[in-house]
Amino acid sequence: MASGVSLDxxxxxxFVRENPLFxxxxxxxxxxxxxxxxxxGFGMGIAATFVLVCSNIVxxxxxKFIPDGVRIPAFIVVIASFVTMVDLLMEGFVFxxxxxxxxxxxxxxxxxxxxxxxxxxASKNGVLRSALDGLGMGLGFMAALVVMGxxxxxxxxxxxxxxxxxxxxxxxxxxxxxxxxxxxxPPGAFLTLGLLMAGVKRLGERS
Amino acid sequence: MEIAHYLQLVLWxxxxxxxxxxxxxxxxxxxxVSRKIESAIGMSxxxxxxxxxxxVICWLLYYTVLLPFHLGFLRTIVFILVIAALVQFVEMVIxxxxxxxxxxxxxxxxxxxxxxxxxxxxxxxxxxxxxxMKTLVYALGSSIGFGLVLxxxxxxxxxxxxxxxxxxxxxxxxxxxVTSAILALAFLGFAGLVKM
Lengths: 207, 196
Known about the structure:
By secondary structure, chain A is an all-alpha fold. Helix content of chain A is about 65%, strand content about 0%. Chain A has one domain (about 1-150). Chain A starts with 6 loop residues before the first helix and ends with a helix.
């Protein structure tokens, strides 16, 4: 509560400085699995951001009532309720996205970013700060997923924005016919994340 | 015939559809814990037990309690609570039965609750419509596959840490991820081994 950090810094820290994926290395499972295309990565980012903001708000409101001993199970139940909501909403409104993200939507429950923010931030700070923190962290996570999805989709599938009406082939039809298929397969996911992480580290050292 | 089918399922879960390298489940402990072979082995044993027990209990709960009462949508909440309780229970039992094993596993036990491989195995067995025996065999195979890769990777990483040739910018997490990419590429070779 009493931290002297200004509100906008609370919001923007998740973008680069404390990016959950590239710097804190949290939430690696969903980011490797769902970043096969830009659209999938975006969808996963939105779902995680929604859960993160809502659970941060509720946990921040309840922080004075939850006994310390059962705090982790209480947080998990709050998070799991919002995840169930997101799961059902996505199944109803964006069914094809729900199919391609598969088991990773219910697995948002055990995403370390969300429990980590609940424990490290929302349980100690006011509602507004917690909401901003959740939004910033969620958007940072989403940006990381979108970058990974873009790289893997262009190289591995030869397209961009597949799954939306705006699909096109940035390197032309010839490349689309024989893309670097391994980039959409698991090895490509590990390689992309590893190299991006090294790149972010380099940028951080320069500035 | 039946036995052969289950053997195929085990091979498929360990090599073809490996939890870590093909399905991206349990990456956090894979990257975080696998620095020493001994701790990787300890973690693997605990995870094999928890995944198998959790999948079986969740399967039973889903088909005997949740479905008859039309509460299928509550499965995420129920499963995560079952897993948390189970991990707590395992911790207590190990502490009573074998204090030395508890010392060895100590710190890794509570972490298993947030290992997405545990919840993932329980949920995947439900979405794949497995029967009871198949769930048991699938969970056992998958968790052994997880342990295998964890130990393999720990062996590689112990050497990686002392190699001076790694560029400074790649040291730590980036080179670990690039190494797992090569390991995943090797496991892609098993793709045609078993058809499920």
